[in-house]
């Protein structure tokens, strides 16, 4: 299916940050664009703002003066909604209110031509519900951009119950022609990104609530070991807790209080206190002038370590061995079940069990569990958790060994799955359920999470790299530890493991 012709007039309704950004994207792609807002003068003001932003790109040498002038020339403020009658595509980016949006769509249906496409930039409302009151609901589709629209690559193309596949393909092709990375998704609560991303916040919030570590340490682990650009606490401070908490509550309610999406009491407290993050000056962190950002808690050991013993294969943690050898540590290899011995300490990659539970069940003394890392060859930090009977000397030996590999070490309380492993396992689990329920393909879900929220790797591809049996085992252990449906493994994950397949076979 071909993209909309450049001669097609694109109308954008709503001249706020998102609407203005979408208008800029369409104009830069070559379309004549009409920008309308119910506030007098807002559309013209937004176009002036776009011109200034383009001017900054010209100053930086990233855009020619001619391209700037051509883009601005394609932008036209529309003071009255009647001026949008000749549009071939209308994208609404107004307030997130179902009845207000429905009223606008009814008005547009009476105004625009029969072949005009109505797209909604909603991030949370049902496309099926938005279209339901129209004579021709098949004209309505979701075109969910991410903020800031000119910079963020992802666009979710959201099909409602009445949306024909041909229309979805046309908007997909159009978004591609506009330089975006579109994905197809179904009109279900949260679409792809706002659904699959929930565990990223939820698991860190739970770890904080259960005393695993402080915010700075947990954020540092997700950044330095997990490869995420920001940890959950600094990211929700940036988003705004009123916004992030509201999305979580919306998804939770839409899925009939499925405990996978349960909101956090800690975040509710922040919202109730007006501590909304950066925009209010205080959230998980204090942004007042002169206040120093807290630093992650790290362990340090002066123990002298020259050698270690590797029993079996360490799986995804195997690159640690090369780092140790490069640092001059003598590594002795022998058969075994994936354990690393140094002095009295025994190190193992977490499998989702408590360290003390695993030590007792497997008969392991001085056990130190290590967390997942995106890339053990490059990670700058690693979390550990110790069994109750692990001696201080054994812990120091484990820390000293990891320090020899160039790693900073942060200890968490003995909680199942540590930080990165449980977060990634839960992200993959939610992605698996989204695939199972036809919300999106594995490829589109991974692309959405990389392009929409800057994940270092798509959660399903990451699960493939870890090994699906290991991810399933982690989730089963989490569910057994907590006794909650929140951690129930996806049926698709179980099926793929039983079939010996991966998400991206």
TrEMBL record:
Residues 190-287, 419-501 form the 3-hydroxyacyl-CoA dehydrogenase C-terminal domain. The keyword NAD applies. GO terms for biological process: fatty acid metabolic process; phenylacetate catabolic process. Coiled coil: none annotated. The keyword Oxidoreductase applies. GO terms for molecular function: 3-hydroxybutyryl-CoA dehydrogenase activity; NAD+ binding. Residues 347-416 form the 3-hydroxybutyryl-CoA dehydrogenase reduced Rossmann-fold domain. Keywords: NAD, Oxidoreductase. InterPro entries: 3-OHacyl-CoA_DH_CS (IPR006180), 3-OHacyl-CoA_DH_NAD-bd (IPR006176), 3-OHacyl-CoA_DH_PaaH (IPR011967), 3HC_DH_C (IPR006108), 3HCDH_RFF (IPR041040), 6-PGluconate_DH-like_C_sf (IPR008927), 6PGD_dom2 (IPR013328), NAD(P)-bd_dom_sf (IPR036291). Residues 10-187 form the 3-hydroxyacyl-CoA dehydrogenase NAD binding domain. NCBIfam families: PaaC-3OHAcCoADH, PRK08268.1. Belongs to the 3-hydroxyacyl-CoA dehydrogenase family. This is 3-hydroxyacyl-CoA dehydrogenase PaaC. It comes from Pseudomonas alkylphenolica. The lineage of its organism: Bacteria, Pseudomonadati, Pseudomonadota, Gammaproteobacteria, Pseudomonadales. The gene is paaC.
